[in-house]
Amino acid sequence: METKKIIRVLIAKIGLDGHDVGAKVLIYWLRDQGMEVIYTGLRQSVEQVVEVALQEAVDVIGVSILSGSHVEIARKLMTKIRERKLDDVLVLFGGTIPKDDIALLKNEGVQGVFPSHSKLEDISTFIKNNVKLAGA
Amino acid sequence: MAKKEIVVRPVTSILGTPVKVFYGPDDLPDFDYKEKLGDPGEYPFTRGVFPSMYRSELWTMRQYSGQSTSESTNERFKYLLKNGQTGLSLAFDLPTQIGLDSDMPQAEDDVGKLGVAVDTLDDFERIYDGISLDGISTSFTINATAPIVLAMYALVAQKQGVETKKLRGTIQNDILKEFIARGTWIFPPGPSIKLVGDCVEFCNKEIPRFNAISVSGTHILEYGANTIQAVSLAIAIAEVYIQEVMKRGSNIDQIAPLFSFHLPIGGRQFNFFEDIARLRGARRYWAKLLKNKYGAQDKRSMQFRFSTGGMGGGLTAEQPLNNIARAAYYAMAAAFAGTRSLNLACFDEVYAIPSDLAIRTSLRVQQILANETGVADVVDPLGGSYYVEALTNEMEDKIGEIISKIDAEGGIVKQIENGTIQRELAKQSYALQKRISSGEKVLVGVNKYQIKEEEKDLEVYKTDPETINRQLTRLKAVKAARDEAKVESTLKQLQAAAERNENIIPHLFEPLKAKATIGEIIETLKKVYGTYKEPTTV
Fold first, then answer.
1. What is the phi/psi pair of residue B371, to 5°?
2. Which residue range is the domain that position B103 belongs to?
């Protein structure tokens, strides 16, 4: 009998944006979908997030940014992730993201981009379809 | 032939009560005009805070704006004024709101992104280049660093030769909602409330025509509160600030006239009549509260004055031009509710701060409402409507109920400190999101009347990539030219004043004139007040 591994997600607010209800709504949804979700709280640095991701052995990092600084932060985050060899972690960005910037984020290595009008179901489905579980 | 049965759709109000198909005299038994309404401008001000409202002076059309560096903001201000805006509303970037300088590492990715970068007095002066402070009022959306902005504003007035006693405008200065819904806090709640009091006290003495606070229900609504909770929480929060200032020996009639509110209309749970009735009910509630609980005698203490935000949370990414219609309905509700000032979220704000076209369109929505519909011609035209008056009564009662419950559970500050209110509101947001996902709550274009084909992309605002370099160069130059010893000594005096628990605002003038940065001032104050640590809220 195969026991299904529980998907572990880290939801992070990087930078100075203080609006986190969208992140929390997603957290509640993902928990209802059976995932384990950790929330970093506000004003995290890229270093702090990557550190927590390593310590908590998460499978997914979801970053919420409503302040327009998503491209710069994605660049720094993906550099740090490669540096710390977290290559198997699925990285998602969400928030106030213009259509043109979606390609820019994907160029940096972000795998899924879910601007603020995205459907919760689409996010959880994407995670389930794309996550790389350790030992899988 | 059998008659076709007429099916009546059940409707529940935001208060959870069933909504009747129509309302009549039976819904207003013993309705006493003088007790419940009064004429506009008369206690309890249900019909409006002033006797002739828009017949004498239209609401201020005040679209929120600020971007990049001070010159860009100055340009956008002039663009809006040229297009008929009647008041300014200044957006600061996140580092400025959180007390960080553009050259601090934590600020790097956020400099000038969704508001203007202000590091020193020079930046602030430049925003007002060619704009006279005695000709226009400004609303400042600034909270944790409000004392500094207020001091800067007074200094610019002085430089322009405008008496501070003549200055009109508003400073948001509402830190408690930051802990709940917006996140630009710096210090813990206790010292933060003290600084709110400092601004009120200072305005009372030096800038009496200024609204020293704009207690905000808008962000609380976006966080998950419904409209009646939003106004109730705002009033509960206002009471905390009032009590803080009264502690210092001020009399209620010296304090309350300086208070105003910033309240939501619209959003994902918009109901035209409920939104209006809630604000009429709030006016009556506030008037009675100030008179009966606080013993206010001055009419101005009892007048519940508010500006309105036409809420962005109700706008959609799908078919964005639909958002112009939404903004128009919100604007109309705001006018019927007697707003003093109005900002409408713009049609492309799902993606970025508004483009020139989008912000101009929001302004046009307001101008069309004011000039082409007749809505501004009669004060409180919905007064006397069976439905609206019944709803107003319900709303007033509900506000009282919510506030009593908060008091019974230890007060709003306690609920903020242990994360209860944040958690409750986030859960409400989640419940609403699920109702939208299921289609129970209709959002046109999102879960009904969707279109399949890809829409043409909008040209949204893009931050000038040179912003941060421009600002850093400027900041470097200011630091190189200033007298470092003077900066240090004036900051030491500021710290000493803070340690003596004095009002810090008079002690901000010298550091600001010496070109101390906002970041340096805040670092100094952190030594006295500490920094806030978020509770777990999810």
1. -105, -20
2. 55-410
> How large is the greatest C-alpha to C-alpha distance in chain A, in angstroms?
47
Q: Predicted ipTM?
A: 0.94
* Residue A125 covered by a domain: no
Judged by CB atoms closer than 8 Å, whether chains meet at A116 and B318 is answered as no
pLDDT for res B465? 87
What is the C-alpha R_g of chain B? Answer: 23
Angle, alpha carbons A82-A76-B312 (nearest 5°): 130
B490 is a domain residue: no
Q: B13 CB contacts (<8 Å, ≥6 apart)? A: B19, B271, B274, B391, B394
| B26 falls within a domain | no
Q: Please report, for the domain that includes residue A71, its CATH number.
A: 3.40.50.280
Give chain B's domain count. Answer: 1
User: Taking the mean position of all CA atoms in its chain, how far away is CA B462?
Assistant: 25
CA distance B447 to chain A (A): 11
Determine the pLDDT at residue B215: 98
Residue burial B136-154, b: 16+ Cβ < 10 Å; e: rest: bbbbbbbbbbbbbbbbbbb
Q: Is B15 exposed, middle or buried (0-12, 13-18, 19+ CB in 10 A)?
A: middle
Indicate the pLDDT class of residue A134, thresholds 50, 70 and 90. low
pLDDT number for residue B62: 93
In a domain, B381, yes or no: yes
Q: Which of the residues in chain B have pLDDT under 70?
A: 1-2
Please tell me the distance from the alpha carbon of residue B115 to that of residue B101, in angstroms, as a whole number. 14
Per-residue DSSP letters for B493-533? HHHHHHHTT--SGGGTHHHHHTT--HHHHHHHHHHHH----
DSSP code per residue over B385-436 = -HHHHHHHHHHHHHHHHHHHHHHHTT-HHHHHHTTHHHHHHHHHHHHHHHHH
Q: Is the residue at B35 inside a domain?
A: no
B28: helix, strand or coil: coil
One-letter amino acid at B521 equals I
Distance CA B463, CA B191 (A): 34
CATH number at residue B397: 3.20.20.240
| CA A117 – CA A99 distance, rounded (Å) | 12
CA pair distance B331, A130, nearest whole angstrom: 44
- Who contacts B135 (Cβ-Cβ below 8 Å, separation ≥6)? none
Contact (CB, 8 A) for A121 and A48: no
Chain B residues with CB within 8 Å of chain A CB:
94-95, 98, 100, 106-110, 113-114, 178, 181-185, 222-224, 316-318, 350-353, 425-427, 429-430, 433-434, 437, 446, 457, 460, 462-463, 534, 536-538
- Tally of domains in chain A: 1
- Set of chain A residues whose Cβ sits within 8 Å of the Cβ of B317: 115-117
Residue A72 within any structural domain of the chain: yes
pLDDT reported for residue B245: 94
Is A99 inside a domain boundary? yes
Whether the CB-CB separation of B65 and B487 falls below 8 Å is answered with no
Distance between CA atoms of residues B441 and B274, nearest Å: 17
Count Cβ atoms below 10 Å from residue B104 Cβ, excluding itself. Answer: 16
Residues A28-63 have pLDDT tens digits of: 999 999 999 999 999 999 999 999 999 999 999 999
DSSP-derived secondary structure for B121-165 = HHHHHHHTTT--TTT--EEEE-STTHHHHHHHHHHHHHHHT--GG
Please report whether residue A127 resides in a domain.
Answer: no
Chain B residue numbers touching A19 (CB-CB < 8 A)? 181-183, 222
Q: Taking residues A78-100, what's their average pLDDT? A: 95
**Domain range for A60:** 8-119
